[in-house]
Amino acid sequence: MKASWDIFCSVVDNYGDIGVTWRLARQLVAEHQCTVRLWVDDLRAFEKICPEIDFQRLSQYQDGVEVRHWPAHWQPEAAADVVIAAFACQLPHAYMEAMAERQRAPLWLNLDYLSAEDWVSGCHGLPSVKFRGVQKYFFFPGFQAGTGGLLREAGLLERRRQFQADRQVQLDFLQGLGVTPAAGSRLMSLFAYENASLGGWLDALALDTQQTHLLVPEGRILGDVQRWLGDASLSVGSLQIRQSLTVQVLPFVRQEDYDRLLWCCDFNAVRGEDSFVRAQWAGRPMLWHIYRQDEDIHLDKLEAFLALYTRTLSPDAQAAVRALWQAWNTEAAMTEAWKNLLQHWPEVAAHAEQWCLEQGLQADLAAALVQFYLNWI
User: Fold this and answer.
1) What percent of the chain has pLDDT over 70?
2) Is 66 a catalytic site residue?
3) Sign of the alpha-carbon torsion through 97, 98, 101, 103
């Protein structure tokens, strides 16, 4: 399929928006032979996950994708065959006029936020607003039939399986990041928003009988880590030990390396949307820090996912997972919730792998988008 695609990304939360759209753009090029322009309004944020990006250039090619700076003052551009407004971002008015002036109107999609709520499948694919005869459609990623699925590159789960089956490959990768975990230690990653609950969780890890090596990619949670350690100088490369807990700060890495980092860890705390999905593909126990919304409506979204994610767990294990996730996302005490989860670790770990494999049976998001376009034309 040789259709041209324009994907618009307005960077709101640092890395989630660009993380999703960058993965999608590359997959459309590599697996579906699409011509893709990715319009981004913040190239400095993009540079964090793709170091080759030159944030001073207006146009450049990376991995077959034409990356364009989305300027404040829009210059005339021809509209593509498929136009994606990621996460309901507002397209430039002049570009919308260009869509309307095409001899054949483009397929205009609002790629929405990921949710497990029941109403999503009923709204997926429905028409939205029109602009001068150009119809926009809702497109919802999701976890169940009737949604757009999740981003998953071809062969991803097999590559993950092979990586996790080879301990030496994992150790070599970690050493490349400056990480040397002690034998028998629990390896964990922490990528989250600011959270007042962190101190209690770190206390529990420090007092645990098992050693934990906690890897913290630089980001918004780092201030809370600093306060708990009492070290305001904490920076990339820092390594601090408190009783049974080793805390190590990692630099931001490209997406492929972040995937491998998740694959190495026994437990992953993630945030937002992109890292949330990638933690599920890791097949390991995890904790999601959902993006906070006004009037706590994000908690409804959290509950919808928990109901789906934990449905096959035993009642006690289900309660343990739910208690930990709820405590983390309401900034409640974490100590007892974490200890309780550890009591159900074998079941929770097996479930994480099974959930991953089940989700891998669905069509992936890029393939679903392409099929939607083919059906539309």
Assistant:
1) 99
2) no
3) negative
What's the whole-model pTM score?
0.95
Query: Is 310 among the domain residues?
Result: yes
Residue 207, Cα to own-chain centre: how many angstroms?
31
Q: For residue 292, how many other CB atoms are within 10 A of its CB? A: 13
Under DSSP, the state recorded for 189 is E
Q: Please say whether the beta carbons of 192 and 221 come within 8 A.
A: yes
For residue 112, indicate whether it is catalytic.
no
The single residue of 17, 81, 112, 224 carrying the catalytic annotation is 17
Choose the catalytic residue: 81, 224, 259, 273: 273
pLDDT of residue 297: 81
* Pairwise CA distance, residues 194 & 266, whole Å: 22
Domain count for the chain: 2
| Helices 298-309 and 315-330, axial angle in degrees (round to 10) | 160
Q: Are 86 and 184 contained in the same domain?
A: no
Range of the domain at 48: 4-151
Residues in the chain: 377
Backbone phi, then psi, for 110, in 5-degree steps? -100, 105
* Whether the predicted pLDDT of 181 surpasses 90: yes
What would the two tokens of residue 355 be? 């959930």
